[in-house]
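Here is the promised in-class demo. Please do not try to memorize the tokens; focus on the logic of going from shape to residues.
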């Protein structure tokens, strides 16, 4: 997700293990570039031949192989990155387990065929047209859905590979989120202070770009200054979410909720508060529905 911009855009600096800093930066840069190339391809091809059934079939046949190759690249990058980090933190050499790619990419991501999933944006176009939207509005909604699907599948390939690699090493007891760049969203900032069990799939959200650091033994994520967290929450969710916790520490579970989506797994969202209306621009935080395509 592209972080909201506003008058307050505080940088968030984590205390990351020294062995992780350079490797994580390179891994996240490569992952971002891969996603950018894939979304550029999706954008260029969606609607190229119109939106009828034949055009949808042509789109799927051209896009699915490219999306699958990108997922394979994302999974391989993740395996190589984690191998380096584990070897460096533990001392010595380490070789990641041979995880078959077909278990963490393609149809295995959602338990649904890619052909069916990547045709869904055209259903969005048809539905929006049936509701009276002009073709350009309906097409934009379909394109947005196509982009979300492709980006979500890349993130799933990364998280599923990470889960397999970490589960295979008894020295790893958990993991943390590594924030990417200076403008991480409120959900990721809050979630970055949590320790996840290595068997659990990392919760994601629309356009999430967090990395992963394996944790050994009793390692715990560092805490972030309360004032910094207040500023990020106010920027993304509005002042009433800050006021809900007073000016003291804000508890993770007071704001962040994990939805268990049947097709794509755990998804981060904002805990509903009936007395608070989220600000414009924060609609992607409302629920897991933006990833449920």
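The designed amino acids, position by position:
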């Amino acid at each position: 997700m592209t972080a909201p911009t506003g008058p307050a855009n505080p940088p968030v600096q984590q205390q990351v293990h020294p062995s992780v800093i350079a490797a994580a930066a390179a891994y996240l840069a490569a992952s971002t570039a891969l996603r950018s190339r894939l979304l550029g391809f999706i954008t260029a091809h969606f609607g190229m031949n119109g939106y009828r059934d034949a055009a949808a079939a042509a789109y799927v046949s051209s896009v699915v192989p490219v999306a699958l190759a990108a997922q394979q690249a994302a999974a391989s990058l993740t395996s190589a990155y984690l191998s380096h980090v584990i070897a460096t933190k533990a001392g010595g050499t380490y070789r990641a387990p041979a995880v078959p790619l077909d278990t963490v990419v393609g149809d295995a991501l959602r338990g649904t065929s890619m052909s069916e999933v990547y045709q869904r944006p055209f259903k969005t176009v048809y539905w929006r047209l049936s509701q009276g939207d002009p073709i350009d509005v309906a097409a934009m909604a379909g394109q947005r859905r196509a982009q979300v699907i492709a980006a979500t599948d890349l993130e799933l390939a990364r998280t599923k590979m990470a889960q397999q690699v970490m589960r295979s090493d008894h020295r790893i007891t958990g993991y943390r989120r590594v924030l990417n760049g200076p403008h991480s969203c409120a959900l990721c900032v809050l979630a970055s202070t949590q320790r996840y069990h290595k068997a659990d799939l990392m919760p994601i959200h629309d356009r999430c770009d967090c990395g992963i650091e394996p944790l050994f033994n009793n390692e715990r994520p560092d805490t972030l200054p309360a004032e910094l967290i207040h500023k990020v929450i106010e920027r993304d969710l509005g002042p009433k979410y800050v006021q809900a916790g007073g000016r003291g520490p804000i508890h993770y579970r007071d704001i962040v909720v994990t939805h268990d989506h049947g097709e794509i797994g755990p998804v981060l969202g904002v805990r509903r508060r009936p007395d608070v209306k989220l600000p414009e621009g924060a609609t992607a935080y409302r629920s897991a529905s933006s990833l449920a395509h």
